[in-house]
Each structure stands twice: as structure tokens, then as C-alpha cells.
Write a structure and sequence with these properties.
Elements: H1 2-17, E1 43-49, H2 53-69, E2 73-79, H3 83-96, E3 102-105, H4 107-114, H5 123-127, H6 140-145, E4 156-158, E5 162-169, H7 170-175, H8 188-197, E6 210-214, H9 217-228, H10 244-258, E7 262-263, H11 274-278, E8 282-288, H12 292-295, E9 309-312, E10 324-327, E11 330-333, H13 339-352, H14 355-363, H15 372-376, H16 378-385, H17 391-396, H18 400-417, E12 422-423, H19 434-450, H20 455-465
Parallel strand pairs: 1-2, 1-3, 6-7, 6-8, 10-12
Antiparallel strand pairs: 3-11, 4-11, 5-8, 5-9, 5-10
Helix pairs in contact: 9-19, 19-20
């Protein structure tokens, strides 16, 4: 319970520090909630998302229990690629007049949709006597992320929350006598000492060509800027990367790239780091807890075969200014909908975020529940405890279902360990959007890795693209 209290307090603190979101257009959307649910009307809910097949299967299970209660509702979900593709499709849809009923996304997506009056404010649905929900049971920080719009209205609800973690090849590190903790992060200097004092990088036995991979170049830059005490952006849309601390940080990471310590997925022509990690091309990979299942070793023909995976917190610059980026999609209702469709969509959101459903989705994905009561359930506490057992202990006890859940339990425990230093970037719209800023700093890391620009040239190019030069 102490850990849960720290979770709630730290989330609230972080989100309050990023208290301004742009966009006020949604206030012009008129809300008319039917007096009763129209059970005799055929209603179709179209949901746009960026989830993979495995996560959507879990959502289908949740949808099935909803349509059992509301058989006149049909739910159709359409993937739009990754979150960048989802954002672009939704923006294009607002222009062309072809939007879904509901959409998953991040605050920096929603502030752009609001410019086109494209979201329905949810306040009246939340407060409704019959159809409403008490917000007291939602994690306060998750709610705060969805309540920071300039007009003071709430346009989205939290659905699935994640943070970043580091998966590592436990089999190889065990061979070298190196142990990591699920509870305590290590610093870059500690990681470099490990690399220097152990024969980890190379083409021989018990070696890999690279030590450490980052799954998202944008997240890596943003989170590292927080760790280093450099600048990134602020809620007013100011770009703050033109400083000596940022230059020192980029120089440091360029040196690690040149020494095969640090890599990015482009090294292997991949979009994510999970495949090279499973193939044994890299010993550690930093990415989202939501991607846990994609990192579970399954490459029999890889350098190390099917090895044992460990999970640890995000690597830090130092222990005085720790930071782990917090993410995860929220869900909103689009304005180009009928009153009946809006009500059905709201009731589906309420259903998706029930304590039982948010716990179910979290335990099978690496996401974090959005309801306080979900954390407190006996089932979820038992789920967290699975990580305390080794693979052999679970096998010997015949706990094969728990063995399958063990990677997700480890990821959840790592998420708990980082609650005191979660952070995220403030969304904004204007001449430059926060989405554009994310893209450019990611491109900067890619250019450094490819060697197409040095630190100063990469920084200058990014600043020019963001209208700062």
C-alpha cells in the first residue's frame, strides 16, 4: 500500500507540473444525452487504434462482455498502423469528414483534434446520474493528464498506461556473474563499467555485437534530457534544446554509439528493438512495458537460442535526477457522431476501464491498471508476486500459467519501482506541435547514429525544422 500511495502521489505531482494543454475548440460541441439507452436502435461503434493483434484479442474479450449487455451494439475496430499513423489518419478524417466513433491516442494527438472541434467533452457523461462514473477510483495522475485542456473540460479517459523498462539477456549476464535488480536502476557510468570489466561485446561466445538498444529514439532523447537536466519543451510550446547540456548529452551518446555500446533499431533495418534482442544481436533493450510480449525470447536460431529474459528499470544518468517516461493511450469520442452513438461509446469506455477489465488487460500486456481498486485486488497482488519466483521454481511447481505471466509480472514490478520518477512531455499546438518536436528529436538521434550529421549539425537541423533558426 505504501507503493500504491507513492504511485498516486508521484503521478499527480508529475502531471500538475505539465498543466497546460492547447486547444479549446471542443467546447463548441453540443452534448445531448438520451434519457435512456436506445435498446431498440442498431448502433455501430467504429474504433480506431494502434494495437497489435494480441492486444486486440484481449480487447475483443472485453467487447464481447459489453455486447452481451447491449446486443444492439456492434463494435468494429480498425488498426491504423502505429500511433503516428493513427494520428495522421484521424487528422485527415477530421478534414474529410470521415472519422470513427472512438479513437485511442495521446494528449498531443487530442489537442490537434480539438482545433477542428472534433472531440466530445465527456464531463456530462461522467456526472450523469444513471450513466456516469465516480472518478475517485481512477489513478489521479492518469485523470489529470486528461483534464488539462485550456477550456477546463475533459475530452478523454485513461485506458492503458505504460512506462519504459530494460529487458536484458539474463542467461548471458548470469554467465558473466552480473546481476540486475527489478527494483533499483543503474546509471550509465555503472553500465559502462560493466562493459569495460566484462567481455560482453564482440562476435565470440557469450558476446553480442552491441550492448544496449533503445526502442524509441524520441523517447530516449526526451527522457535523457530530463535525466541530464537539459531542456526539451514547455507547455507554451517553447523549444528548449539549444543549450550546452544537450550538446554534452548528445556527445556522450555519440561516443557510446561509436563504441557499439548504444544502438538503435535501424542498425538491423527494424522499427523496434525486440527482434534484434531476441536474435542475440544486442544484450539489452530499452522500450515500453506495453511491448513486453514482443521481447519474450523465441528465436531458436539466434546467437543464444531461447535464453532467459530479465527486466530492470530504465538506465539513469545519475541517481539524483532519475526519470522514466510514462505513456499509454487514452480514449476519446469523436464529435461527428449521433447522440446514441456517443452514449454507447461512453458506456463502452466505462466498461473498458472497470476494475476487472483494466486489471485483466494490464496483467496480459505489461500496461498498468487505471483504477485504484484494480491494484488492490487479491488477483492483481498475486500477479505481482509471480515475479518473485524463478523460472525453475514455477516449472517444478507445475505453475505453467504463472510461467506465461511471469514476464508481464516482472514488467509490472519494474513499473512500480519507477513510480517516484515518472515523467512525460507537455503537449501543445501552435506554429510547431509537440508531435513535430518528438519527431525531430528522434530524427536527430538517428542522424547521429548513421553518422550523417555530427552533434552540432544535427542540433542545428532540428532547430531549423522547428522554426528556431
Amino acid at each position: 500500500m505504501k507503493k500504491l500511495f507513492a504511485l498516486l502521489l508521484s503521478f499527480t505531482t508529475v502531471f500538475v507540473l505539465s498543466a497546460c494543454l492547447g486547444g479549446t475548440g471542443g467546447a463548441e460541441v453540443e452534448v445531448n444525452i438520451p434519457d435512456e439507452f436506445p435498446h431498440d436502435e442498431e448502433i455501430e461503434i467504429i474504433l480506431w487504434h494502434a494495437f497489435g493483434d494480441a492486444n486486440m484479442q484481449l480487447l475483443d474479450d472485453i467487447f464481447d462482455t459489453f455486447t452481451d449487455e447491449y446486443p444492439n451494439v456492434t463494435i468494429r475496430h480498425l488498426g491504423q498502423g502505429g500511433y503516428d499513423g493513427l494520428r495522421q489518419s484521424t487528422i485527415q478524417g477530421t478534414v474529410s469528414g470521415s472519422t470513427p466513433t472512438m479513437v485511442f491516442g495521446y494528449p498531443d494527438h487530442f489537442v490537434e483534434y480539438l482545433l477542428g472541434n472534433s472531440l466530445v467533452p465527456l464531463d456530462e457523461y461522467i456526472a450523469h446520474d444513471e450513466f456516469g462514473v465516480s472518478l475517485d477510483d481512477y489513478v489521479p495522475g492518469f485523470l489529470a493528464e486528461n483534464q488539462q485542456y485550456l477550456d477546463g473540460m475533459q475530452y478523454s479517459m485513461p485506458f492503458a498506461k505504460s512506462t519504459e523498462m530494460v529487458v536484458y539477456n539474463k542467461t548471458v549476464f548470469d554467465h558473466h556473474g552480473i546481476e540486475f535488480s527489478m527494483d533499483e536502476p543503474i546509471s550509465w557510468s555503472e553500465l559502462l563499467d560493466i562493459a569495460e570489466n566484462n567481455d560482453l561485446i564482440g562476435s565470440g561466445n557469450w558476446q553480442a555485437p552491441h550492448l544496449f538498444n533503445v526502442d524509441s529514439e524520441s523517447n530516449f532523447f526526451i527522457n535523457s534530457s530530463s535525466q541530464w537536466g537539459a531542456g526539451y519543451t514547455d507547455a507554451e510550446g517553447n523549444i528548449l534544446i539549444d543549450n550546452d547540456t544537450t550538446r554534452d548529452m548528445l556527445t556522450f551518446f555519440k561516443e557510446q554509439m561509436d563504441d557499439n555500446i548504444l544502438a538503435i533499431p535501424a542498425e538491423w533495418d527494424e522499427n523496434y528493438g525486440s527482434i534484434p534482442f531476441k536474435q542475440g544481436q544486442v544484450l539489452m533493450s530499452q522500450g515500453s512495458t506495453a511491448g513486453t510480449r514482443h521481447n519474450i525470447p523465441d528465436a531458436e536460431g539466434g546467437r543464444f537460442g531461447i535464453f532467459e529474459m530479465g527486466i530492470m528499470p530504465v538506465v539513469q544518468y545519475d541517481m539524483d535526477n532519475k526519470s522514466a517516461i510514462q505513456q499509454g493511450p487514452n480514449v476519446a469520442v469523436m464529435a461527428d457522431t449521433t447522440d446514441a452513438e456517443r452514449l454507447a461509446a461512453w458506456l463502452l469506455i466505462r466498461h473498458m476501464t472497470s476494475p476487472e477489465n483494466t486489471a485483466y488487460f494490464a496483467m496480459n500486456t505489461g500496461y498498468v491498471p487505471v483504477r485504484i481498486s484494480a491494484f488492490e485486488t487479491e488477483e492483481y497482488q498475486a500477479f505481482l508476486d509471480i515475479a518473485n519466483y524463478s523460472v525453475s521454481e514455477l516449472e517444478d511447481a507445475g505453475r505453467y500459467d504463472d510461467l506465461d505471466l511471469r514476464p508481464f509480472s516482472m514488467a509490472a514490478n519494474v513499473a512500480y519501482a519507477q513510480v517516484d520518477f515518472y515523467a512525460f512531455e507537455p503537449p501543445f499546438v501552435g506554429r510547431v506541435t509537440s508531435s513535430q518536436a518528438r519527431d525531430e528529436v528522434g530524427f536527430m538521434i538517428e542522424a547521429l547514429y548513421a553518422g550523417t550529421r555530427d552533434v552540432e549539425a544535427a542540433l542545428t537541423y532540428a532547430l531549423r525544422e522547428l522554426g528556431q533558426r
